[in-house]
Amino acid sequence: MPENKEPILIIGNAPITADIRAEVDSYTRVVRFNFCAGMPQHLGRKCTDLWLSGRGRQAHKLAHSHLDIDPQQLLSLVITDPPPNPVTQTCFRLLGRQGSLDHGEALMAKFAPAHSKKRITAAVRQQLLAELLRLGQPECKPKWPSSGTQAIAHFVAAGTPVHIIGFGFQGWKRHPWRLERRYVAKLQEQGKLSYLC
């Protein structure tokens, strides 16, 4: 958890066309997700905090693909899925349910040099979902908040000023995107969050 109050930049996976390399380099901490939008040159190279989905085909690909990130420079690695139940994981393997398999340990090993490594707990994730549901009716029955919103909530709770870019509030249909947009707007109104551009 950050000890100073310097702003942190959280880069989402929505398309960003602007060249923000200079802005990215000006931050002490830069948070990215999953495949980091391909790490295109115009989004800079800095990544101090990496938040990764731990389950399913995407997590398997993350664990076995090259990510252009230096693990030695990572202040933190966060797996955004709680630790799995070993019994259900065995069942998923027997049933061939690749989309439900957990790859968190492989990701932890891949980024072992990170200064800190942890998984989001089920309780923390459920608490954030409950907070989002108080903001209105979701489009469908959500399973859990997106990794981006989890990261925003984490750093705001730490009292860190948060700057964001690349958040389109769309994607997997079981995230409560409309409520996440409202949540971010509420934080912006409270002066806890601002958009980079």
* Helix/strand/pairing category: alpha/beta
> What is the approximate shape?
globular
- The count of helical stretches stands at 7
Q: Which stretches of 5+ consecutive residues score pLDDT under 50? A: none
Averaged pLDDT: 92
Strand content: 5-15%
Q: N- to C-terminal separation?
A: 26 Å
Strand adjacency order, main sheet: 5-4-3-2-1-6-7
Structure description:
This protein is an alpha/beta fold and 197 residues long. The protein is built from 7 helices and 7 strands. A 7-stranded parallel sheet has the order 5-4-3-2-1-6-7, sandwiched between helices. Helix 2 links the parallel strand 3 and strand 4. The chain is globular.
Question: What would you say about this model in short?
Answer:
The protein is of the alpha/beta class and 197 residues long. The chain has seven helices and seven strands; from the N terminus they run βαββαβααβααβαβ.
Secondary-structure topology with pairs:
Blueprint: E1 8-11, H1 21-25, E2 29-33, E3 49-52, H2 56-64, E4 76-79, H3 86-95, H4 104-110, E5 116-119, H5 122-133, H6 147-157, E6 162-165, H7 177-189, E7 193-195
Parallel strand pairs: 1-2, 1-6, 2-3, 3-4, 4-5, 6-7
What tags apply to this protein structure?
alpha/beta, 14% strand, 197 residues, single chain, seven-stranded parallel beta sheet
